Please model this.
Amino acid sequence: MKGYGIFNRTVKDLGLRRIFGNPGSTEIPMLRGTSDYVLTLHDSISVGMADGYSQYSGRPSLVNLHTLPGVANSMAFIHTARMNRAPVIITSGQQDSRHAFYEPLLWHDLKSLVGSAVKYSYEVKNPEDIERALKRAYAISLSPPSGPVFLSFPMEVMDQEGEYMGLDYSTPNLQILNSGEVERISELIGRAKNPAFVAGSELDQYGGIRELEELASHLGVPVFSEPLSSRATFNSSSDNFAGELPPASTAINMALLQYDLIVNFGGEFTLYPYLPSPLLPGKKIVSVGMSPSYKHGDCVFSNPKLFLNALLLKANGKWSFRKQEDQGNAGLIAREKKVMGVNYVLQRARKHFSGYTIVDEAISSSLLVRKNMGYSQKSYFTARSGQLGWGLPAAAGISMLRDKVLEIVGDGSLMYTIQTLWTISKYNLPVKILVLNNEGYTILKSFSSSFYPGVENSEFLSFSYNIVDVAKSLGIESRVADPELKEMDWLAQGSEAKLLVANVPKTVPRLFI
Amino acid sequence: MPPFFPTSEVNATLSQILPEAEITTSTDFEMNASEVLVATTFTKVDEALISKMPNLKFVQIASTGYDNVDTDSLRKRNIKLANIPTANKESVAEHVITMALAQLKNLLYFHNEIVNGNWPFLTNSSELMGKTFGIIGMGAIGKRLAERLLYFGTNTIYYDPARITDEEEENLGVSYAPMDELLRKSDIISLHVPLTKETDRFMGEKEFGLMKDGSIFINTARGEVVNEAALINAIKSKGIRACIDVYANEPPDPTGELFKVPNVLFSPHVAGVTVESQQRFITDTISNVLKYVQGLDPSYQVL
Model:
């Protein structure tokens, strides 16, 4: 069997049905025989789509990039997949190694290029490597912390003869309970004066949201969401939900000021921007999860869902946290209606898109997206890395697995990977797109006004373009919302992809200190 | 520090913000090595205090006004100064509207009549809607007041030496008017200017003379920006109704003439003081000190 045949056979046996990619000459040899190729019109989009696909399914996905240009074009997305813990297997073609010495066109040391953005990288040397490298990459992508892996395939290997061995492979056992630590953590909680829980993305990834809700309710303990999570962490409508931790150290310290014990289930304290306060000085911090970082306090390696189930049987104590009853915000919405405010738009979206999975890249409005739309298991995704352009591809990837996906995106973010609309149109993906158009980089304006006053008025932070015309040219039905938001009905109707632009105010919210 | 000041809570909070910082809560010392001084508007930051703090680099006033600070002394020593001009804008705007409505609706009169056993049958109460509301000083507080007035349906005009942009005027629903025109046209006038050499007693005989008879004058800025004798004269001669939150001397002499003339509503320099605004002052003060500590320019830097 030729190398490309081994490649196709292995991919099929691993259940990697689709290949997300944007090919070049170096990939043509390996793509012979490929049947389910999802074409994106920029390399990075394929990584973003695969990221969303993998996060939602919990399974590895396969990407094929065009050697140096494709990998280089996708670096930010590969980094994001790592931050999002998305098990994406990234492959690329490589120049024929028989003349690599001469550094020919398109050649580069690809392993060095992907560097630390992936968990594992390898360039196959012969046909026998193809099967074992793919199977190894598959398993490594899933081992905690799950994340992207990279394989490079020199062109000539795909035409060399080899054998498909049908090698055994295993995937990591994720059902690991560190039962020896349950008693200790239970006692720590029992002895605490005022404990607080932090819920992290692993509860959405490995399960445990329902279990943490039950534990928190039983004990009367507040549950905060980790800062800047890549996905839902908890059930935001729970009576024990205490809100989202801000990402800056001082703000986290203030939010957790009254608590002496912080138990973090599957989360991370992602920080931005720098503030001089050390993180949670003098507090007892315990992190339970599959990928403890050992950055803060005490760490317990365990599946959070299994650990929480065991803790439920042991933990004792009685505190009295219950979140304040939501009095509604009808007044705010009425005021914002007059100016097409973000809360007004999102409240209307909430009515139409209940039960949808939200993919959020409306950076300066993300807090409001989460507040207005709420979240629970597998209902909310965003990029943890801070890059722009990830949201639309990720929404497209998720829409290959379910037909209720709403992408809420800012005008700045949208432009980064707007070609995704072509892919959405070509494959009839059922993505609904709501653009919050504030004509500029409002997050940067907010950052500037907090830390570097005056810069927020710079001309280079504002821009505008005709979003509707661009979207139409890429095959997506598009409209601009009128003040009554009647088009929200239009957006929700049918299963076909549509895009609605809401021209929201250009006012700069205060998002930093 | 006053006895109600929660020193232990502040220390506990500070231990989570800057654990290595030492806090001193009194100015009754011979010398102090602090680099940062946080003070309210009620602490004199004068040469006497500054000279006892040889390492002082940054003064943060947790208030809008900073006329309690000897800016010349700070400038001489190259010490930075910042205030917090935005934290109380909501509370001051609400206070101004409260006072205006209390005057328009004769609330003080009705209250007094009823507690004295009378039941007034007639009223000349009027509405805020449709009135011309003049704002002198279009800073953070003036703008927030204008925003709130949008919903009352007033015709809002303003004067400020630095005119705001056309877009801001449109968004706030305000029109610019020169000072004399504003004084002549307004049914209600509210001051929102800092106390400076230029504004010291700038509301005098001439200005009150231009105001409409029976109009309402509100001062939540600083007592010193008003010539009190001229105000008393205007109240007596033109039936000006006044709302006073700030006084040249605080607390004022209760036997003063201002407290004997009719149609004046008083509050004790609390327009900007609410539970919520104090929380914002604390947050903004912490933010600015953190910016200073990490080498950034503090927000709202005056010097």
About this structure: Chain B has two domains: 7-86+274-293, 89-266. The first strand of chain B starts at residue 36 and ends at 39.
